[in-house]
Amino acid sequence: QVQLQESGPRLVKSSQTLSLTCTVSGGSITTNAYYWNWIRQPPGKGMEWLGAIGYSGSTYYNPSLKSRTSISRDTSKNHFTLQLSSVTPEDTALYYCARGRSTLIDEYDSWGQGTPVSVSS
């Protein structure tokens, strides 16, 4: 019954920082053994895992994007946030948040509906 909802800007400019928030209802982001993930899908391409924050607050990042990625949480608001800095048009994608028992996409049990983000040059 847990629900996730992404929110944030749909259009950002190159070189800016993209900030997206995932608001969780029906379950706590501090619940033991769950990981809270960010994933994206560029147009015409497959899913790409960006990173996650675990139930204890530990963070995990895709090495290819680690230098530009930051994931944090606000437990009082029960949401977690993605920040992707120095964006380029190649960061244009449909961005998802998801819950799982690990950071592996195959093991997610709940997804947000996704939010499109376009990066202008």
Report on the structure:
The protein is mainly beta and 121 residues long. Strands 2, 4, 5, 6, 9, 10 and 11 form a seven-stranded mixed sheet that branches. The chain has a four-stranded antiparallel sheet with strand order 1-3-8-7, with no helix packed on it.
Q: Main beta sheet, described?
A: 7 strands, mixed
Structural class of the helices, strands and pairings?
mainly beta
Number of strands: 11
Proportion of residues in extended strands: over 45%
- Unreliable stretches: none
- Mean of residue pLDDT values: 97
What is the overall number of helices? 0
The H/E string reads: EEEEEEEEEEE
Backbone CA Rg = 13 Å
Share of helical residues: under 10%
Choose one word for the global shape.
globular
Termini, distance in Å?
40 Å
Give the gist of this structure.
This protein is mainly β. The protein has no helices and eleven strands.
Question: Any descriptors?
Answer:
mainly beta, seven-stranded mixed β-sheet
What are the SSEs and their pairings?
Layout: E1 3-7, E2 11-13, E3 18-25, E4 35-41, E5 48-54, E6 59-61, E7 69-74, E8 79-84, E9 93-100, E10 108-111, E11 115-120
Parallel strand pairs: 2-11
Antiparallel strand pairs: 1-3, 3-8, 4-5, 4-9, 5-6, 7-8, 9-10, 9-11
